[in-house]
Write a structure and sequence with these properties.
The structure is a homodimer of 306-residue chains. Chain A is α/β, with parallel strands linked by helices and 306 residues long. Chain A has helices at residues 28-37, 55-63, 127-136, 150-155, 157-164, 174-181, 186-194, 235-250, 255-272, 286-300; strands at 2-6, 10-16, 19-20, 24-26, 43-50, 67-74, 80-86, 93-99, 117-122, 143-147, 169-173, 200-204, 210-214, 217-221. Chain A has one domain (2-300): 3-Layer(aba) Sandwich (UDP-N-acetylmuramoyl-L-alanine:D-glutamate ligase). The first copy, chain A, is 36% helix and 25% strand.
Chain lengths: 306, 306
């Protein structure tokens, strides 16, 4: 039994209204696997980096018990690099640089030891690679979660639709839900998207929380109001990692557990944005996580007896 | 003991992506008093209309047990008229016409029978009239709720700040919180605004719900995801009316009751947007309201045992 996370492992250079960084470690699989590791012990990563990726960066994965056998290191090549700048509202950003490098011909090799995968997180990547990953697992995992973004809707919609058909949970943001469905109302959007294949849809709304849709059920999760959002990079990946990590821990996939998984994912994401890159989510204690989850409980609970 | 609502009583002409209306009855006090009447029996309205306001419109108030002694009818004059058009996202709108008419020299006369006011809702109006209303009540009400909007921040900030100082609860939206405080983060904005006088701040976020701030406590209330939003006009007024109406009913002002009041206010507001104008909130049954509140409970409850 294991939780496999596939996605980018990369360098980011980030500018926000509060500061900027040089190249720091980022990538969907980085954030997601770190987040998942707080809840589940057998997290295994699939990705590719260049030889510019440092040993200490890989050591960070190992410290969290993350299996890196599936992380290919391409000698003489460079890691994927992304540079972006956030606007004041932190909900929109401009991409300044995208250098695909090793990602350009990434072939996701699944080590034999990963074939026990029960929980699969397809982090943000080309839909084709996400699909190949599913196909290379001999047994279909118990739960497949797909995270994607508007970019793939723009350039690879057919591939994306095919991949979406194969998964259990899709996580996208509100604008992406509208783009994917052609519906403005998120309820109508969700109804359409649930007909495309996934049994569960999570619509991420950043500072406004998240919505979970399943059949005719809806769950609205709050976001923690924060005084400072230093850097939203990786928050969605962290959310997805915390979400599937919690589900892997509890071992039963149902609506009630999914609701809690969203709270745990949101709690991890709320830490992520407090510092640049993975700085905060690399160094959390279990108590910090538990306290943060309790904040979500306090934030949103009310008692109405009718 | 009574709940006094002051605000506009008006005609609106509304255009949304889903349709448009001729002149229909609107105004902050109209929506708010109707909403409050579902929870509290002694709702009294203060406002002004022209002789173009029809008897059947006033009859609607009376049918809801709303006291209209404080609703002045100016012979030979016309009621306040507003025409607006909503954009696709329903969160922004253009004002097409504003005819102040009777509102231009509105003097809020408080009938003697209103002096038992314990709960006062200052619906959206000039801050000066809101302040005059407070001053004309011989005994300070137990709870004063102030609803306002960006327009008054633009044209009458000093008056508004003076009025804000005198109230217990301020309800504004997220953009207005940012404008009033000069802070982008809603947490920072709330901290600043709570220093301006009110003990409670409610930040309305439309389809994203609402936040309640009090000392170092925060409550995040969900909004009901709706397939169709026909017309957002009056949703904020309806929210405020439902909110204070519920508090008047339970009779004790504390954070726990305020949380529930926000849910009840949100439930009423979720009905308001389903049809044009007051059409929906004029004709609700207690069962409909109770069922809708239950939807809010189901929507946002989760159980985490750590």
């Amino acid at each position: 039994m294991s939780l496999v996370v596939i996605g980018t492992v990369a360098f980011d250079a980030i500018e926000t209204p509060f500061g900027k960084t040089d190249k720091i470690v980022g990538g969907a699989a980085t954030y997601a696997s770190l987040a998942a590791s707080y809840f589940y012990q057998k997290v295994k990563i699939v990705g590719v980096v260049g030889d510019d990726f440092h040993n200490e960066d890989i050591a960070d994965f190992k410290k969290h018990g993350i299996d890196v056998e599936g992380l290919q290191i391409k000698e003489g090549e460079k890691s994927f690099f992304w540079a972006g700048k956030y606007h004041n509202d932190m909900n929109s950003r401009d991409t300044l640089i995208t250098e695909l490098n090793v990602l350009a011909d990434f072939d996701p090799i699944i080590p034999e030891s990963y074939q026990d995968c029960q929980y699969l997180l397809l982090g943000n990547l080309t839909p084709q690679i996400q699909q190949t990953t599913i196909n290379r697992l001999r047994n279909r995992p118990k739960l497949i979660v797909l995270d994607t973004m508007n970019f793939w809707m723009d350039v690879a919609m057919d591939d994306l639709l095919q991949t979406i058909k194969m998964v259990d949970v899709l996580t996208i943001n509100d604008a992406e839900s509208r783009q994917l469905s052609g519906e403005y109302s998120l309820v109508k959007a969700a109804n359409k998207i649930l007909k495309m294949g996934p049994k569960y849809l999570i619509i991420k709304k950043g500072e406004h929380g998240a919505l979970l849709f399943h059949e005719d059920l809806i769950f609205s999760a709050p976001a923690l109001p924060l005084a400072e959002v230093f850097d939203p990079t990786g928050a969605g990946d962290t959310f997805a990692g915390g979400f599937i990590g919690y589900l892997a821990k509890v071992g039963t996939v149902n609506f009630a557990n999914m609701k809690n998984a969203i709270i745990y994912g949101s709690a991890l994401a709320s830490f992520c944005v407090e510092k640049f890159g993975t700085e905060k989510i690399k160094n959390l204690t279990d108590k910090e996580v538990a306290d943060r989850v309790q904040q979500f409980v306090n934030l949103s609970s009310f008692i109405i007896e009718q």
